[in-house]
Design goal:
Keywords: Signal, TPR repeat. It comes from Polaribacter sejongensis. InterPro entries: TPR-like_helical_dom_sf, TPR_rpt. TPR repeats lie at residues 146-179. Residues 1-21 form the signal peptide. It is a single chain. By secondary structure, the chain is an alpha+beta fold. Helix content is 42%, strand content 24%. It has 7 helices and 9 strands; from the N terminus they run ααβββββββββααααα. The chain has helices spanning 2-17, 24-30, 115-120, 124-137, 146-158, 162-175, 180-190; strands at 32-37, 40-47, 50-55, 58-62, 64-67, 70-73, 78-83, 89-92, 104-106. The strands form 2 sheets. It has a 5-stranded antiparallel β-sheet with strand order 5-6-7-8-9. A 4-stranded antiparallel β-sheet has the order 1-2-3-4, covered by helices on one side. β7 (78-83) and β8 form a beta hairpin. The longest helix is centred in the N-terminal third of the chain and has 16 residues, at 2-17. It is elongated, with a radius of gyration of 21 Å.
Length: 191
């Protein structure tokens, strides 16, 4: 009980000693979208000199400033560090639970999207290219698994959005040309 209280006290003391204002340069370089995983984004923005995040459907997640480049994000239970070199990215501060693994979230370029964002905006060719890039980098990534994409196609069928179902099944067939199930699902969408 004593340890958590002292940790909270130190956090509050640390936060109160840190300037709450951020430089204009820091604001302009850190605002943007960061790739949390291959299909999920954390959006960082400032409102009235305070840092906020949009993540997993939540907006206005206020980040507690620890120092000029470090903030605590309660929803992640992590201290996030903004690192500008070699390119701007977010890095999670090391902690015992990470077991030596470093977590970096790269900043997306203007207009860059995740595969599902491309798909939702009906940019099917770009969605396919993004899925292919993930497959080349990590063929076991669950985001591009045949089953995941198949289930997504059936969700579209259930909503009677047959065009989207067909497009996701086409992508699945291109990614997995030797799997009969993807063609069976595509045939069902045509039917």
């Amino acid at each position: 009980m004593k340890k958590p209280l002292s940790l909270i006290f130190l956090l509050v003391l640390f936060a109160s000693c840190t300037s709450q204002k951020n430089s204009e340069e820091f604001i302009s370089t850190t605002q943007g979208r960061y790739l949390f995983n291959d299909n999920e984004v954390i959006e960082i923005y400032f409102k009235e000199q305070k840092l906020y995040a949009k993540w997993r459907g939540r907006t206005d997640i206020e980040l507690l400033k620890v120092n000029d480049s470090a903030f605590y994000m309660k929803e992640l239970n992590e201290k996030i560090l903004f690192v500008s070199r070699p390119q701007m990215h977010i890095q999670l501060a090391e902690k015992r639970e990470h077991k030596g693994i470093k977590y970096d979230f790269r900043k997306l370029k203007n207009g860059e999207k995740t595969p599902h964002e491309y798909f939702e905006s009906q940019q099917f060719d770009k969605a396919l290219d993004a899925f292919k890039m993930i497959q080349q980098r990590d063929s076991l990534n669950p985001i591009i698994s045949q089953g995941t994409l198949n289930r997504l196609g059936y969700k579209y069928i259930k909503k009677e959005d047959f065009d989207s179902a067909l497009e996701i099944f086409k992508i699945n067939a291109i990614l997995y040309p030797n799997k009969s199930n993807v063609f069976d699902s595509m045939a069902e969408a045509y039917f």
